[in-house]
Structure formats: C-alpha cells, structure tokens
C-alpha cells in the first residue's frame, strides 16, 4: 500500500466521525433567557373636573406622563410617579375693565398601587396618591385708562386616590383606563376628578 492509498483510506475512515460531531453539535438546544419587564411608561390624556369655593372651573383636558416599577409576586405591587398639565383661560369684564385670567397647573404625584390579575389580560389596581401641585396664575387687567398684570406662583400639597383597569394587548403594550380623585390644599381646597385613558409600554 503506497502513501497516497493510505491517505485516502484515512480520510474515508475519518468522514463519519466528522459528521457525527456535526450532528451532535446541532442537537444541543440553547434555552432562551426570559425577560422581566418590570418598568413601564404611560402617556395619558385625562378630563379635568375641578370644584372650588373660590374659582368657578370649566371642564378642560389635560395630559400626563407616568413612570412606574412593578414588583412582588406576579407583579402585584407598583410604585408610580406622574407629572401632568392642565390649564384654564377665563375672560370677563366689569364696568369698563376687561380681565384675562390664565391658570396653569402641574401636578407631581406619587402612587402606591396594588394591582392583582383578574385574568391573563386584565389587571385591576387601586392605591393612595400623594404629591404637590405647582400652580401658575397670571391676570391681565386693562381698560381705556390703564393696563396692568400680576402673577402668582405656589406649590400646594395634593393627596387622594387612584383606581384603574389595564388590558394587555401584548407582553409590552397595554391600555389603561383610570379614575383619580385628588384634593389640592390651596387657600380654598379644590376637589379634582380625573378620568383618564393611556397606553402603557413595559420594558
């Protein structure tokens, strides 16, 4: 047997072993790592129904952005922070004077939620809300003889409660329908009802 023949025989003998190693490698399964999506971000739109002894509020719209973290068994507890905005513009006059009254409010709120699962898609949540509301008010007065304006800024303690229903479209996207009642502890206590709707993105 010459060297060429011996080399060919060795190559033929080794081929089955190479295929066996390749097949063995293909048979190994790599498990996928599960992703925990505990954080969520919820832009929302709400209607504002406010009632106060000092100011006659019209119904207006507002926007908010909530950021939260879910934890505990089956993510039944959540801590959520939210910033919002709503504004009112009122025009009125008396005698020869015309008045423009602009009121803008920015609530900064923190809510502790208990949100158990009702089904694979639905969650219910309820919890206390506390924070502060920044209030900016500017009044313009003018008539035939003069024009003047003055503004007032304040931070007011705010507290209340929140309840919501969440429907999950997927693992990451959910629809939230909520109701919040808060009291703004200003010079005259203001009672605010806030129904809202938002889309929650988990990550």
Radius of gyration: 31 Å
Give me the count of strands: 8
| Total helical segments | 1
Q: Helical proportion? A: 10-25%
The largest β sheet comes out as: 8 strands, antiparallel, barrel
Strand fraction: over 45%
Overall body shape:
elongated
Give, in order, the helices and strands. HEEEEEEEE
Instruction: Please give the alpha-carbon distance between the first and last residues.
Output: 68 Å
Adjacency order of strands in the biggest sheet: 1-2-3-4-5-6-7-8
Which structural class should the secondary elements be placed in?
mainly beta
pLDDT averaged over residues: 85
Describe this structure in words.
With 203 residues, the chain is mainly β. It is built from one helix and eight strands; from the N terminus they run αββββββββ. It has one helix at 3-26; strands at 39-52, 60-71, 77-94, 97-114, 122-142, 147-168, 173-184, 190-202. The chain has an eight-stranded antiparallel beta barrel with strand order 1-2-3-4-5-6-7-8. β4 (97-114) and β5 (122-142) form a beta hairpin. The chain is elongated, with a radius of gyration of 31 Å. Mean pLDDT is 85; it is low at 2-9, 18-25 and 27-32.
What labels describe this entry?
203 residues, mainly beta, eight-stranded antiparallel barrel, 8 strands, elongated, disordered N terminus
């Amino acid at each position: 047997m010459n060297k060429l023949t011996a080399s060919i025989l060795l190559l033929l003998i080794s081929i089955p072993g190479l295929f066996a190693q390749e097949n063995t490698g293909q048979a190994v399964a790599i498990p996928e790592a599960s992703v925990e999506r505990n954080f969520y971000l919820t832009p929302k739109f709400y209607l504002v129904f406010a009632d106060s002894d000092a100011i006659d509020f019209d119904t207006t719209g507002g926007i908010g952005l909530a950021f939260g973290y879910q934890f505990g068994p089956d993510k039944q507890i959540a801590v959520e922070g939210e910033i919002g905005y709503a504004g009112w513009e009122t025009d009125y006059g008396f005698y020869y004077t015309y008045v423009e009254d602009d009121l803008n409010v920015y609530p900064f709120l923190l809510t502790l939620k208990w949100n158990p699962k009702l089904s694979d898609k639905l969650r219910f949540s309820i919890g206390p809300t506390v924070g502060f509301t920044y209030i900016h008010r500017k009044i313009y007065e003018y008539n035939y003889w003069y024009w003047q304006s003055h503004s007032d800024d304040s931070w007011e303690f705010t507290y209340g409660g929140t309840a919501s229903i969440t429907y999950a479209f997927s693992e990451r996207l959910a629809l939230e329908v909520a109701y919040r009642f808060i009291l703004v502890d200003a010079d005259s206590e203001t009672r605010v009802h806030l129904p809202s709707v938002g889309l929650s993105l988990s990550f």
